[in-house]
Structure formats: structure tokens, C-alpha cells
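Morning!

This is the sequence you dropped in the shared folder:
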Amino acid sequence: WSSDVCSSDLRPSSATNPMTVIIPAVGLVALALANLKGVSLERNLLTVAALFPGLFLLESALRTDRFPEPTLMVLIAFALGALTGPLAGIAERFIFQHTDAPIREAFGWLGSDFSRAFLEAAFCEETLKYLVLVGFCLPRKAFDEPMDGVVYGVAVSLGFATIENVLYVLH
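The structure's back. C-alpha cells below.
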């Protein structure tokens, strides 16, 4: 990287970056919603804490783009990435129900573990994230340079990772 690509004048200042408002707002809304449901303060704080790594890393990724993407588009990509989490869980359960017994019978527990790791988890999760990237992000007018693939790919992946964090905390 040349020094002009990484210089701070190419990155949006925190005063103009909408993510500096969005990240704390999401945390406060999540905390308020959890309080309405009568959930314990500890669980509320853990849930909000599970949101922050993904949102923080998303904001960091946005800062690396010389020609920033529309914030709304990136947030939609993040949200669609989060929606792939539950969809992947459904697909993984379906594949497990139909393949685990025959694979375990043929290859034993090692084959079953291999199947769960690669056939179920990796294949389902990565395919769904790819479909969001190609089906939603790529056709957009704002997707006009190679770095956009990185920004939107990071947004989709972090959306998935964030919902995984939240579900892990809640269960």
C-alpha cells in the first residue's frame, strides 16, 4: 500500500461517519428491548456485548474504503448476512437428518464429524453468504470497484458472525 491509500484524509472522520451513531444506538435499542421482555441485566449486557465486535469491525472495514459505500447498503448487507444464520441452521439440520446415519454407518464417527464440519456447516453457511453477495450486493450501482467486494463481503460475513454471537449468548 502506498502512503496515500492509507492516509487518514481518505477516511471519513468520526464526526461524519454515521456508524459512530449507529453502533451505540443499536446497543441501546437492544438493551431497551431486552429490558421490556424482563430479561436479567446480565443477559442484556451479554447480548449487547455480543453485538459490538461485529459492528466495530464493520465500522473499521468501512474506514478502509477510499470511496465509501452508502451506509444504508452496507447495513442492509450486514442484516442480510445476519439472516443467513438462521437459514443456515435450518439447512444444516435438514442435511444432518438425511446424511448423518448413512455417513456414520459407512465411515464411523470421524466421517460423521467431517460431514458436519464441511458438508453441513461450511457448505451451507458459505453458500448462503455468497448468494447474498452475488444476489444483492453485486447488482447494485454502488458496487463499482474491487474494494466494494471486500467491504460488502465483510459486511455480510460480520452480519452472520454477529447473529452467531448473539445466539451463542442467548443459548
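Headline: The CA atoms of residues 43 and 108 lie 39 Å apart.

More detail when I'm at my desk.
O.
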